[in-house]
Design brief:
This protein is α/β, with parallel strands linked by helices and about 350 residues long. Helices cover about 30% and strands about 25% of the residues.
Length: about 350
């Protein structure tokens, strides 16, 4: 009997934070990767499982574990583990630190390990922006954004990339946070960004409203009366900050993945799911179905539309894959022997 063939060597690519920064990935590259992954999901060419949570009970935070696989042009599976520790600013760390692992979808061999802290921020901002591309009014010119840490920067940057707003308002609980955030955005976007003293002056009458607050417990800070007819509203804080009546004024309710939105203990519309205000019956579509052309997006300017995204592993995988491919072209990243 002949001896079994020797296993071929397996190599993985490791990309740290400095490598990710060296890629200098553009806004258009980010948006293209995320829009493509949403279309793949909408066509049923992906597998996604609801995120899992691990609460270490050692601090004010938890870990999210996201898993999925993308077919189509990408053909990759992945798992991301991301911490969400809201008081990290006190020790000079971002609230979210993450690692993404990519695998061969057909044989399970590992392909890459990437610092995913920046990926998390970029892909979340891109999902917000792609949602607005299909669901906000084309002439939207005023953005109201609550929240100044984590994913907030990429929400505003990528939304402005698509809409070129006349007015951008931002708010967060701490004055130093919102003032610093507004200053950074003003410098990077080349336009004035207004730091508002409260929620109402930030979001009332805005064409696009994004709620990315960092509350310790659910509290109805975003009032339904402040939302103008025809607005596009994106609430996605871990703890609910919206008034219970918010869904009552919506023409369409859209989510990124109903499977993960309908379960778990966290999320801005958790109470609405539990009360039946958001259900299979009231849900208009998943975002991927709209991007893939299977369900309509915005159909007229009078529609007031809500988009709740919990965060897709598929977005992490798609953006990680795009970074991996760009790194290969540019010679960025470290090749490590795995087996």
């Amino acid at each position: 009997m002949s001896a079994p063939a020797a296993m071929p060597p397996i190599y993985i690519t490791y990309m740290n934070r400095l490598d990710i920064e060296a890629l200098a990935i553009t806004d258009d590259e980010i948006l293209a990767a995320i829009e493509g992954s949403l279309a793949t999901q909408g066509r049923g060419e992906a597998v996604i499982e609801p995120r899992m949570h691990l609460e270490p009970k050692a601090a004010n935070g938890h870990f999210n574990v996201l898993r999925g696989a993308l077919g189509g042009e990408i053909d990759a599976a992945g798992v991301k583990v991301v911490g969400d520790f809201v008081e990290n600013y006190k020790i000079g760390l971002p609230s979210e630190l993450a690692v993404l692992t990519l695998f061969d979808r057909f044989n399970g061999s590992p392909k890459a390990i990437l610092d995913a802290s920046g990926i998390t921020d970029m892909r979340t901002g891109a999902v917000t922006a792609i949602g607005a591309k299909y669901l906000a009014r084309k002439g939207s010119k005023v953005l109201g954004h609550v929240g100044a840490r984590g994913t907030a920067y990429w929400n505003v940057r990528l939304l402005d990339h698509l809409f070129d707003f006349d007015e951008i308002r931002v708010h967060s609980r701490r004055p130093e946070s919102r003032d610093g955030f507004a200053a950074k955005l003003s410098a990077d976007l080349g336009k004035r960004v207004i730091a508002t003293p409260d929620w109402r002056s930030c979001v009332e009458g805005a064409d696009i409203v994004v709620e990315a607050s960092r509350l310790d417990r659910p509290e109805p800070m975003l009032k339904t009366d402040w939302i103008k007819k025809g607005a596009f509203v994106v609430p996605y804080g871990t703890m609910s900050a919206v008034e219970f009546s918010l869904t009552d004024i919506m023409s369409k309710l859209v989510v990124d993945d109903w499977g993960q939105c309908k379960g778990g203990k966290f999320g801005s519309l958790r109470a609405h799911v539990e009360a039946g205000k958001l259900s299979e019956a009231t849900l208009h579509a998943e975002m991927g179905q709209i991007v893939a052309g299977l369900k309509p997006g915005r159909e007229n300017d009078d529609e007031t539309i809500l988009f709740w995204h919990r965060g897709l592993s598929l977005s992490d995988i798609a953006l990680g894959h795009a970074m991996l491919e760009k790194g290969k072209r540019l010679g960025i990243g470290q090749r490590l022997r795995f087996a």
